[in-house]
Amino acid sequence: xxxxxxxxALYLAGNAIGLLIAVMILPGFSINFxxxxxxxxIFTAVEVxxxxxxxxxxIKSVPALQGGVALVTTFAGLFITFKxxxxxxxxxxxxWLAATLLVWVGSLIASLLLPIIAYKKVKDKRQAQRQ
Length: 131
Known about the structure:
Elements: H1 2-25, E1 29-31, H2 33-60, H3 69-84, E2 88-90, H4 92-130
Antiparallel strand pairs: 1-2
Helix pairs in contact: 1-2, 1-4, 2-3, 3-4
């Protein structure tokens, strides 16, 4: 159970980092500070539910789509979050495409690095307690 909570927290943090990267890099992409937490929660929830659903559909209907399911899921997450959160702006088709790619890459890198960093901190803390 603890592992599931930690995994969820890291996934949420990875998505938050991905959204922040898009906000910092893309001039037409913005999220109000007060809406950022809500946007991150909605985006993560959509990805958690849409990811397996889209994977299942791609396996049955369009096997060639399997490689791009993560990008399609990210786009769907951005679209639904954009529709539900008032303080989120994504301007123009190029921003939509770039935001999808940046959020996906940012989330991917964060989801790879955050567990390593968390593990290292726990390991260092345990070593310090033993001494």
